Amino acid sequence: MKTTDTPPPAAPVENTVPPAKTDARRPAAGSGEGGVLNVFSHGVLILWAFMVVLPLLWAVMASFKTDDAILSTPWSLPDRLHVENWSRAWTQAHMSDYFLNTVLVVGGSLFGTLLLGSMAAYVLARFDFPGNRFLYYLFVGGMSFPIMLALVPLFYVMNNMGLLNTIHGLILVYIAYSLPFTVFFLTAFFRTLPTSVAEAAMIDGASHTRTFFQVMLPMAKPGLISVGIFNFLGQWNQYMLPTVLNTEPETKVLSQGLVELATSQGYKGDWSGLFAGLVMAMLPVLGAYIVFQRQVVAGLTAGALK
Amino acid sequence: MQHGKYRFIVGFLALPLAMYALFVVWPFIQSIYYSFTDWTGLSPEFQAVGFGNYRRMLEDAIFWKSLQHSLWLVLLLPLVTLGLALFFAFMINVGGRRRKNAVVAGVRGSSFYKIAYFFPQVLSIAIVALLFQFAFNPNDGMINSALAAVGLDHVQPNWLGDPDLALYCVMAVLVWSTVGFFVVLFSAGMASIPRDFYEAALLDGAGRFTTFFRITLPLLWDTVQSGWVYMGILALGAEAFATVQIMTVGPGGPDYSTTVLPLYVYQTAFRDGQAAYATTIGVALLIVTLAFAAIVMRLGRRERLEF
Fold it and tell me: Which residues form the ABC transmembrane type-1 domain (chain B) (predicted)?
């Protein structure tokens, strides 16, 4: 074992790339291939990190500059912190209204999604009845269908019901379009929970409904948090649904409002106000992500891993 | 007991199912039906026209352009995104300097990279698109002024204004915003591959690139495949719609060089007032989506490796 270990097993590689070998020997005595790769991988990784972070930092910087400075010297630091950009965006450009609308819509639809999604998922995961599989696939199938196709008739369905351009109408639509993933994820989650606790509760005389709310739902908390984070981000960042179904200025949500701002500010030339608005919308989510980093990553990747 | 059970099932399923049926399933069925009519959306009256809309679609040059761009996105976007993400994830997890007692090692600061790369994933695609619309601005944008600053004054592309470049700009933005998610996803997958596999490969004389293609990629294949489907649906869905609609001139321009199927459905229905024809294009989008998912599932089928 020892003898095979001492010459680094990179012999075939050394022959094909001789310059890499000589370069590597100097910094890292020992594993030559590892040394080059180490420098190379750090270089590439740092480059991409720059490409990700730089535009975001640039936007923060631009939000504190004057319009002239943004256009003439895009890469320079602001001469002083022009906080008035922020207050102008918050009041005159209606960012405060957009924030309020978004909070209302996302608050309502997140609660509804988790409640209705867990109810449906629990029944589909734990009870045997004719049509169970069919309903499950009906829900899950919604994940892969192009939503735009449904939005054309949905616009007129909503219009006839008087739900177009209303906050509550948007909440109902958000819930309906969040159900496929929520049901898919929570069904799998409820299946992994032990049956014995629920059976014990039933023997003690609890009804099905009570067992669900007082025993099963608390047990499903980790799953609810994951799918809750997933839905929160999806609904907070939603752009396509409100663009089609919610076109009145008073009920616009954040993402739409920003696009609206960009179009109108483009004519007025108020770029600093636009970037203040952008950063305003960006920071709460980024801040929350940095604080709850682990949970957010777990919540967003949960669906894709097995 | 039995009676109670069914009452409970019905009681719990009624509301979610009703909402799902009303807002999702019913519009889907309706739209397929409408694609065979001449419904404008503006008046409630319409007549069945058979395959008229479909014949019109086959002769519609803008439809073919949209389809071509959408197919191009579906092919290229997963390839570039997943390729880059696999590369970064491999660098983060296996690219580090070899340490004592460890055959493979992650680079230093790997958790920093994972946090930073993930940033775009939590931002709204609308914010990302707006930011890059400004970055691509040919006169005062971030990119061209950075190019000028490093002495490339003569290289000042028109980016979104150039019909040959605009679609690639859109694609770059979508790649930028999705790579981080897959880096984190693949990193988690790579971390769960047993170290002994790498050890054995190194003892047998395998370099890191052989290790990647012979060990890491096959063991990660399931995740890569579901990522492929996810990226394809994204390239045909809301994200592609949002980036094109927000960033490009027109939107969909210049000269229809960036128009994609979901955008064309939207414009036909809500700008041109031709709801029935829009649903016809939507049906084409549905067929493309389902065909894509079926092809990936078929091509990607491999023996599942348990470890």
Answer: 67-296
